[in-house]
Design goal:
The complex is a heterodimer of chains A (109) and B (235). Chain A has a domain of 58 residues. Helix content of chain A is 78%, strand content 0%. Chain A is built from five helices and no strands. Chain B has twelve helices and no strands. The model of chain B has no long low-confidence stretch (mean pLDDT 91). Chain B is mainly alpha-helical and 235 residues long. Classes of the chains: A mainly alpha (109), B mainly alpha (235). At the A-B interface, helix 1, helix 2, helix 3, helix 4 and helix 5 of A face helix 2, helix 3, helix 4, helix 5 and helix 6 of B.
Chain lengths: 109, 235
Amino acid sequence: MSYSTGEIWGIILLLGLGTYLIRLSFLGLIGDRPLPPLITRLLRYTPVAVLPGLVAPLVLFPEATGGSLEPARISAALATLGVGFWTGNILWAVLAGLATLYGGLALLG
Amino acid sequence: MARTSGKSMFLRGMRDGLPFVLVVGPFGLLFGVIGTEAGLNLAEVMGFTVLVIAGASQITAISLMQENAPILVILVTALAVNLRMAMYSASLVPYLGAAPFWQRGILAYFLVDQSYALAHLEYEKNPERPLGEKMAYFAGTMMVTAPSWYGMTWVGAVLGEAIPDSFALDFAIPITFLALIAPALKTAAHVAAATTSVLLALALAWMPYGTGLLVAAVCAMAVGAAVEIAMEKRA
């Protein structure tokens, strides 16, 4: 990471302010005006539209392995997805992923 | 319905929010560790957690910072993760819109996934409750959750400094994201959006400054909405 202290705090403050304004938007500023249905539909998918694209290269080309596929990390990713999907529980999914990662690294690494 | 007071609604909100400590606490811990491992100091990690108070977008920012992405790209991507909160904000207006501005201003800061989910459910069930009781309930939901988020982030940041590199914590970021995504894949539309996001992000990885991810995200949102509309037509 090569940002100056000032830049890091700039990111923190602007992200904090932006997030606050998103939260305040209708409640504080826009008021009781219904969102157009199309906008509601689009907003519903924001997390699931951003996060998978962000995570895919991190899983497939991890920097720690010099950017090559690695079985322990792939297995950990699949275990996290599987447990998260079946249990719907974020905590169990993280634990399953970490257990698989460390198990895999111990066995294969 | 039995008569309730603001105080008892506050306590009920607190009780209903309690189970979320089990989710928010470990997530805070994870963010603290991730932030420290990425090279942030304690004040910066706590700055994120207190000022942004939105874990997924904080980890998004840190993940992009590790790739030395331009600041504008970091901000746009991390804020995109939080856009859903505009929807939360809009859906609470019918219940809380009449509260004084300063109260709505404070409440907005605490409008996170957990408080929104609890409050919206409660307001839908009991829309006739007085405004003061509604506000008290919301405040109650965050009374335990927010401090556990701050506190556990701090613990994670302190721990993170002590954890050696051999623990492969680089992979804590992908695991956390996958754990957040998996339970959200509830409908065909969500799965379609997630798949589009992955495929386009990989295909557009050549685009400069992480802008490929933004294009992928916009297309994925459109695909999610389009599939939702198609499913409704079929139903």
